[in-house]
Structures are given as C-alpha cells and as structure tokens.
Write a structure and sequence with these properties.
2 domains; Aminopeptidase; alpha+beta; BioF2-like acetyltransferase domain-containing protein; about 40% helix; Acyl_CoA_acyltransferase; BioF2-like_GNAT_dom
C-alpha cells in the first residue's frame, strides 16, 4: 500500500564537498560513536552504493552550527507489508544506524530531524529506525522527544550481539572468558599451523601497503563461501570500490584498524575494523577456508583481541555480528542490545491522515500477528 507521493531525487554530494567537511567536524564531537556514519565510510557509501541518488542527508542545526546528521531513504515496503516509510539508511555493509549528533544536543537534533520529516512532502508513512543501541544516546533522546511531543513510538525488534569492553589485558580476558578446553585446543592448532611454515601476525601501519592489503582481503573473502554465494565484496564492483574508498579515507583519518595473519608470506586470515572516537566496529573478516582445520577465523580474532586490548585508544569494539554467532559469542563476553523503532510522523492535511493511518495499520497488523502466534 503506497501511502504517499513519490519522492523527488536529491542532488548527490560530490566527494570533498563542503557538507562533508561539516560532517567531519561533527563526527569529532559525536555523542555516540558510529564509524558507518562517520564521513570516511558514509562518503564512500554515498559515492559507490547510492548511485541512484535516493539517499537524503538530513542535517539538524542550532543557529549556524551543525548538530546532527541522519542519512535516510524512502522505502516502498516495511518488512513484508506494502506500506511506504522513511528509514535510516542501512546499506548491505552498514551494521549500526545511530545518527551523528553533537554531544549535549541529542534531543534538539532529534527535534529537528522529526520536524523536517513532518514537513517533507516526500516522507511516507512513519520513520523506521534500525540498528540503534538500546542504551545509547540516540535511543534515549528519541524516547524523551516522543514523550515530550506525545508522539507514537514502538519498539519492533531487539537482539543482543557480542561486544568487547574490558579493562583486562588480552591474556587475562582470554583466560577469564574462554573455557580451558577451548584454550588448549587453540594452542594445539597454533602449533600445528606453525609446522607448515612461518606464521606472522601484522597490523597495517603504512599507507603505501593499503592497496595491496585491500586486494588481498577482497581475494581472500571471494575465495570462500561468500564468493560462491555472490555476497563477497569482490562480487560487485561497487561494493569493492566502496571498500577500497572507505579503507583509504579511514586510514587517512586515523580510523582504520586492519589485521592479517600470513603463512609463508601469504594472507590466510584478515580482519578490517573501523574506529570512531573511543570505540571501534569490526567490519569484515576473511580467511582461507582450505585451512579450516586450523580455525584461521578464530586465530585472527585472537590476534584482534590482543591488538584491541593493547591499544589504550580503543575502549570498546562492537562485533557487528549476527545474534547468537557461534564463534564470536564464545570469545567475547560482553553484549550490546540493538533495537529497531517505529516513530509516528505528522504533517498537515492529507499527509497527516495518511501517516497516522500507516502507523496505526502496521502496529495493528503486528499486534494481530503476535496474538495469533501466541494462540498456536
């Protein structure tokens, strides 16, 4: 059910444009870290993954000062329902959706975001926000604003995913959170792998090495099941270009954290993380599946644990993993609760009626489905 008019396409922002300089300044004072909406990753995504021009960047301001940035798209469907809505932009390689908001201006920024959506003739149905931290600054500000404005707000999904946040050393953390039997097995695998040749763990430090590392990562990921299923970054030129551009921009901004394990000089496991503020986000992992008997994916995560815990600038790392992930959940003890919200939009005239109807209809169908499921 299409409940609003078609949106007019916005003008894409060119690389190096003035808005991106403003975003960079905003990112330095963000209330909630989000590497995916920091200008290096967001800019790369806009340049390579949003070629249809349908991503809008909503900016919140306090006078002349930028206090918030929310990338949104208009969707023709909400889940399985043919009901249009506005959603924060979560492309295939974006795993956290918290808007970039200046610390201390959280409610003010959300007041501006919502007001602009209320007034926008292209905004459909309601606002669907996904990928938020349930305990984060954005969730708290959004709830406070909805209470203040008596605006409809509904939590529609939540799950926990692994997170690394500890003051322990890597060795102490490993001993405290991983079963002794598993630790013993990992030591055995490390020794067996070393029997095949020289094993070296490296952290990317030189800008000149970046193109080679990106090429190795793309090839390694494509060599496994992701390549076979067509989901590896290298399977789509735009995805590969996004990865290279994001890595380059993040390295130049001091936000790229990339690891590899080499066997006789050849990469057998790699991991790319993106930093923002005191936090970091584990983006992608790739490993040689022909060496699966040595668990190279686990070995690169152990190397990552040491790299993170040995770096005083990284306070925490979000795994960005699916819930109940069998590997990372067994290694990292902390959890982050990720939520989705549905927020009512208002407006004037027919738009107000249509938006209220869309919000009520989807909530009603969802409640009915839950009721029927509970009666089974």
């Amino acid at each position: 059910m299409d409940m609003a008019s078609h949106p007019s396409p916005p003008v894409p922002l060119p690389p190096g444009s003035k808005p991106r300089a403003r975003w960079a300044a905003l990112a330095k004072e963000a209330a909630e870290a989000n590497a995916f909406y920091a200008p290096d990753m967001l800019g790369a995504a806009i340049d390579h993954l949003a070629t249809d021009g349908h991503v809008r960047q909503i900016e919140a301001r306090a006078g002349d000062h930028l206090i918030g940035l929310l990338p949104v798209v208009v969707q023709s469907r909400h889940g399985r329902l043919p009901v249009g809505c506005v959603s924060n932009w979560m492309h295939d390689h974006c795993f956290f959706g918290a808007p970039m908001i200046r610390e201390g201006q959280e409610v003010a920024a959300w007041r501006s975001f919502i007001a602009q959506l209320d007034d926008a003739p292209w905004a459909r149905g309601f606002l669907h926000m996904e990928g938020l931290d349930a305990a984060g600054a954005n969730a708290a500000a959004l709830e406070a604003l909805c209470v203040e404005q008596r605006r409809g707000r509904r939590e529609i999904h939540r799950y926990d995913r692994a997170m690394l946040r500890s003051d322990l050393s890597a060795d102490a953390y490993w001993d405290a959170n991983v079963r002794s039997k598993k630790r013993k097995e990992i030591r055995r695998l490390q020794k067996r792998l070393a029997e095949l040749g020289t094993v070296e763990t490296r952290l990317l430090t030189e800008r000149a090495d970046l193109p080679h590392w990106c090429a190795d990562f793309l090839a390694l990921e494509a060599s496994g099941w992701k390549g076979q299923e067509g989901t590896a970054l290298a399977c789509k030129p735009a995805d590969a270009a996004f990865f290279r551009a994001a890595c380059a921009a993040a390295f130049d901004a001091g936000r790229l954290h990339m690891l590899r394990i080499d066997l006789e000089g050849r990469a057998i496991a790699m991991l790319a993380n993106f930093r923002h503020g005191a936090g970091a986000f584990s983006f992608k992992i790739a490993f040689d599946e022909t060496l699966g008997r040595f668990s190279p994916g686990v070995l690169i995560e152990i190397a990552n644990l040491h790299a993170v815990q040995d770096d005083p600038a990284i306070v925490w790392m979000d795994s960005c993993a699916a819930p109940d992930h069998p590997m990372i959940d067994s290694l990292w003890a902390e959890r982050r609760t990720i939520v989705q919200y549905r927020i009512a939009l208002r407006g004037t005239g027919l738009a107000r009626v249509q938006r209220a109807a869309a919000f009520a209809l989807v909530n009603g169908l969802e409640s009915l489905a839950s009721l029927l499921k509970g009666q089974r």
